[in-house]
Amino acid sequence: MSHTAHIRSHRKPRRSASSAAMRAGVASGVLSTLAVAGASGSAQAAEPVTQTLELPTLTADLAAQVAQSADATQQAAASYELQAERDAAAAKAAKEAKADLKEAKKKAAEAKKKAEEEARKAAAERASRDAERTTLTASADTGSSTAAESSASTGSSTATGSAAAVVSFVRAAVGAAYVSGATGPSAYDCSGLVQAAYKQVGVSLPRVSQDQSVAGTQVGLDSLQPGDILYWGGAGSAYHVGIYVGDGMFVGAQNSSTGVVEKPLSYDPPTGAVRVL
What we know:
Strand content: 5-15%
Radius of gyration: 65 Å
Shape: rod-shaped
CATH topology of the largest domain: endopeptidase fold (from Nostoc punctiforme)
Number of strands: 8
């Protein structure tokens, strides 16, 4: 035996070829798996980046813009609708106001026309009465006026019976208004006052001055008694009447300016007189 036979060799034992091939195959498979896994992981990682970072961001912005545009359009439409309603209400109010103004003007014009017509009638009546009185006064002689003024001394001044009631009635009416066609109790015209005075003692007289001037017995102005009917104008065509109340005084509904008054005969000398009682 060699003197070195018992010493272990310092060389590493050789591996068999099959063992090396196996190890090389395993290593190659591991590397292939890692490469595939890496490639697959890289591909999977790359795809979500495109989907989650770009497309969703663009879609959200577009949706927000569309929503804002829709809100703006809706607000504008609501504003236009509100303005249209206000314009319609204003137009309706203006139309109604115009109609009311037109109606008010129409009524005012009618009232003015009526008032002017009444004023013309009253003025014409006063002018006619004043003209007739002026004519009669101018044509009357001095003797007629003297007789009228002196009638108080020659006639009776004390009323009795129904005549006293007539005198009392007309004196109580002094101060009442003169209204053409009125028969009392707050307003009279001349013949309305005479008719009312005699009616309350049971005597029915005609309504107008012309007929009242011939309703009784004609008496002279120098023989007057309280309760006699005085008239101005001709008998049967008189335009004014009153009641003699004694002491040279008479009561009559003269005109719209004076109303019912008590005056002396000299204030407006009558033309004649009739006695009913």
